[in-house]
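// run 5 | inverse folding | seed 20
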């Protein structure tokens, strides 16, 4: 069986109604996996649920979830396990951009929102996913960080801090689970053509200027990030854990 053939397996994705998450849900379905996914936006979620079933002939389950809420993350995981029996791969992708402003102009509300979604959401997801995988023989988890989790980026200090924390959480969990057949990795996208990027820089920097600053001269598409996430969840990456994969057109090495 090809390493990227996930027929008969199931993936759980948190933060998958738009952008990278939506593309990742489609990538898993295209590889034959049944997909349980959560996010905000019931219209987007129901639309994607129908698409996955119709286009790829897999089963799909959508639930609207606020990743900051313990009970909602737990219930989503419970429903996914009830539906599919076993979760082989999990992706913690929910994220928010926050305000574009220098650190000293950010507020307590900014902090709570950024850390709540970008870090607490990943922690809550992993806290539910890990026990399930430990009791079912293993699995793979991928967390979405950012090139801002590798380098510092001015005017998005709280976003940068939250993504550095995701990288640290990933490394620590990978070490804890290394002998348990549960692999934990992260991806660190550079600029991606998503609503998050456009909202983050609106009124401050245009996308053409951002693209010009990337060594490869362009921003990426969500599907390019999704393909890397999928790979990290397959047997092709069976000896990879604790790694943060930069997918940034060379930005972090420039």
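// decoded
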């Amino acid at each position: 069986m090809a390493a990227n053939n996930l027929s008969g397996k199931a993936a759980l994705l948190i933060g998958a109604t738009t952008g990278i998450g939506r593309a990742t849900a489609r990538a898993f379905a295209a590889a034959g996996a049944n997909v349980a996914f959560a996010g905000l936006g019931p219209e987007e979620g129901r639309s994607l649920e129908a698409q996955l079933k119709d286009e790829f002939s897999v089963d799909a389950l959508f639930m609207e979830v606020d990743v900051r809420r313990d009970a909602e993350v737990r219930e989503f995981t419970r429903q996914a396990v009830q539906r599919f029996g076993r979760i082989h791969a999990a992706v913690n992708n929910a994220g928010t951009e926050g305000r574009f402003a220098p650190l000293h102009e950010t507020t307590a509300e900014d902090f709570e929102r950024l850390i709540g979604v970008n870090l607490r959401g990943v922690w809550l997801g992993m806290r539910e996913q890990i026990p399930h995988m430990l009791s079912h023989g293993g699995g793979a988890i991928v967390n979405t960080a950012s090139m801002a989790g590798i380098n510092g980026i001015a005017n998005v200090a709280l976003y940068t801090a939250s993504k550095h924390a995701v990288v640290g959480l990933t490394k620590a969990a990978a070490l804890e689970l290394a002998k348990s057949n549960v692999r934990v990795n992260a991806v660190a996208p550079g600029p991606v053509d998503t609503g998050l990027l456009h909202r983050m820089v609106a009124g401050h920097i245009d996308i053409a200027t951002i693209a010009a600053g990337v060594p490869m001269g362009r921003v990426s598409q969500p599907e390019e990030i999704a393909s890397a996430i999928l790979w990290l969840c397959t047997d092709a990456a069976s000896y990879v854990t604790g790694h943060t994969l930069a997918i940034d057109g060379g930005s972090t090495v420039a």
